[in-house]
Amino acid sequence: MSYLILVSHGRFSEGLKDALSMFVGDSIHTVKAIGLQSGEDTISFGNRFKSLLSDIGSDADLVVLGDIIGGSPLTTVCNILEQAGRLSTTVVLGGMNFPMALNAAILKDTSSSQDLISATLLEASSAVKQFTVHHEDDEDEEI
C-alpha cells in the first residue's frame, strides 16, 4: 500500500487533505497530513511525525509533499525518514499545491516512482498560471 503524506507550516496540509477528500473518496484513508504549528518546536513536531509514521506499515511506499523545500517541517520529516531508513525509498516533492496533491493521490498506487514524479511535477507547474476572462466583442453578438 502507498501513503501520501502532506507536510506544511500551519494547517495548510490539513486543509489540503480536506479538499482532497472531495475528489478521492475512500482513498483518503491513505492520505496523512501534518503541519508545524505556530509556536511549536521541531522536536515536538518530529515526535508527532514519528507517531504518524508508526501508524503506517514499514513496508508501505511513501510519497511526501511539502509546502517548501528547505523549510523546517519538510527538513524534520526527511531527517526522521532518514533515521528510520526510509528516505531513500520515499518520493519527496516540494512546492505543494492542490493539483500536485490530487495527482499524487491518484497515481501513488498505480505508477512507478519516476512516472509519478514526472506527472505530478508537470501537473503542479502547468496549473500555475494567470486566470483571464475573454469577452466576446459586442459587434459579434446578434441583437
Automatic annotation (TrEMBL):
PTS EIIA type-4 domain sequence ranges: 1-128
Q: Does the keyword Transferase apply?
A: yes
Assigned keywords, A-Z? Transferase
Q: Which GO terms describe its cellular component?
A: membrane
Q: Which GO terms describe its biological process?
A: phosphoenolpyruvate-dependent sugar phosphotransferase system
Gene3D superfamilies on file = Phosphotransferase system, mannose-type IIA component (3.40.50.510)
Q: Name one Pfam family in it.
A: EIIA-man
Q: Transmembrane ranges?
A: none
MF (Gene Ontology): transferase activity
PANTHER family xrefs: PTS PERMEASE-RELATED-RELATED, PTS SYSTEM MANNOSE-SPECIFIC EIIAB COMPONENT-RELATED
The protein's name in its UniProt record: Phosphotransferase system, mannose/fructose-specific component IIA
